[in-house]
Amino acid sequence: MNDSNIYQRIEDSAQFRELVEKRQRFATILSLIVLVIYVSFILLIAFAPAWLGTPLHPGTTVTRGIPIGVGVILISFFLTGVYVWRANGEFDRLNNEVVREVKVS
Fold first, then answer.
1. What are the structural domain ranges in the chain?
2. How many CA within 13 A on the CB side of residue 28?
3. What angle do CA 73, 77, 80 make, to 5 degrees?
4. Closest CA to 93 of 23, 5, 3
5. What is the pLDDT of residue 9?
6. How does residue 4 score in pLDDT terms, banded at 50, 70 and 90?
7. How far is residue 36's CA from residue 3's CA, in Å, rounded to a whole number?
8. Residue 99 pLDDT > 90, yes or no?
9. C-alpha to C-alpha distance for 87 and 82, rounded to whole angstroms
10. Mean pLDDT value across residues 61-77
């Protein structure tokens, strides 16, 4: 069995198309979420630096910008974890189904 035949069977697989579509949609949604968060933070830095530089409460040196910046980083880690969790679950399952289907054919 030649490789081009295997590749063609994979591309023709409904499960492969489902995998590609779901993974692409999910990655796009997560990417847009991260993009909106980062752009919003940069716009906040550009247009409201005084607000970001305001201390959280009187007598502290911790400003509003510090927890917001840490939050941006933590959200990115969290969304990466969400992607990995789904990739190791649903996407791996779909991938294994495609491999089994191609091997049987």
1. 16-104
2. 6
3. 140
4. 23
5. 86
6. confident
7. 42
8. no
9. 8
10. 96
Which amino acid would we find at residue 75?
I
Phi-psi region of 63 (alpha: psi -120 to 50; beta: other; left: phi over 0): beta
End-to-end CA distance of the chain: 11
> What single letter denotes the amino acid at residue 54?
T
Exposure pattern of 8-21 as b/e (b: 16+ CB <10 Å)?
ebbeebebbeebee
Query: Residue 83 corresponds to which amino acid?
Result: Y
| Residue in 93, 99, 76 with CA at minimum distance from that of residue 10 | 99
The pTM of this model reads 0.81
Full DSSP string of the chain: --HHHHHHHHHH-HHHHHHHHHHHHHHHHHHHHHHHHHHHHHHHHHH-HHHHTSBSSTT---BTHHHHHHHHHHHHHHHHHHHHHHIIIIIHHHHHHHHHHHHH-
